[in-house]
Nicotinate-nucleotide--dimethylbenzimidazole phosphoribosyltransferase
Amino acid sequence: MMTLEALIEQIKPLNAEAMKKAQVHLDDLTKPRGSLGVLEDMAKRLAGIFGEIPKEPLQKAIILMAGDHGVMEEGVSAFPQEVTPQMVINFSNGGAGINALARHAGADLICVDVGIAVDMPELPGLIRRKVAYGTKNMTKGPAMTRDEAIQAILIGAEVVADAVKRGVRIVGTGEMGIGNTTPSTAIIAAIGQFAVEDVVGRGTGVNDKQLQIKIDAIKGALEVNQPDPADGLDVLAKVGGLEIAGLVGVCLGAAAQGIPVVIDGFISGAAAVIAGTICPQARDYMIGSHLSEEPGHKFMLDYLGLKPMLMMNFRLGEGTGAALCMTMIDAAVKISNEMATFSSAGVSESID
């Protein structure tokens, strides 16, 4: 397995010349310049990533990382930890929200056990790469070691590399881990130096009493661990999660492979923040899919300089927003390749 340093060294700047050529082409299409807004921006970004606007829709995959959290001991979630493996079985059986939306987008679903607290059986579509049986309780010390965090990151990057070998040209991030809005909140609070109350949400639907428990747990974890906001890996190891670390690897791995990564919601956003802190160049390969209902998600997107393509009041996670956004990316490819130019259609260019 490669090192984290070697992975980061593979990440290159976008192709500025290709983006200029794409802009010229987009401006020549039979429409007022810029009138297809975000779709045009997306087509131009794809040109920067691939060296040209793709000629056909990209082969897609949602990479869903699963892991459990020791902080569940504090009572931070409305659901028990047993739901994590139960939902992974549901993913394998094709019955979850992400299954429906991945099918709609024409995306494969790749599920990875990077840190579920129990042994999982062999299941269709499940990759078993467990680093540990969940994280430790971050209110009492680091959630994991730095080496465990790096191991999970490299697993995520390896899963992306394997998908690219099979022809995948765009990946989306997804996750499953009961309690994982707690470490995600801790991550953005630590890196952005925000008050916990400003970025915390109710996750799966905790009541007022549970919300206060959650706030106290996050504050306690930050106080005990004192994560360094300038060191993304330090923040990840001390107050993160194994599935979050795996998704950091997906973000970095996609950039290293020269393909775009569609960032889902709040937990995926936490992973993207860590990846963007470790390697700012990786942000150019990230696409913000939607704005989550979790209050901290807006702070994550702002930190990364990303604008969400969709506002759908989603708060499910799993990769659902990323899958839906992939259909919009297909549309960006289609306008570039299927619309006529002014010269080919014999239309006056005076439209504005």
Notes: Residues 4-55+335-345 form a domain with the 5,6-Dimethylbenzimidazole Phosphoribosyltransferase; Chain: A; domain 1 fold (CATH 1.10.1610.10). The first helix runs from residue 4 to 9. The longest strand covers residues 107-115. Strands lie at 60-67, 107-115, 126-128, 170-176, 261-263, 286-288.
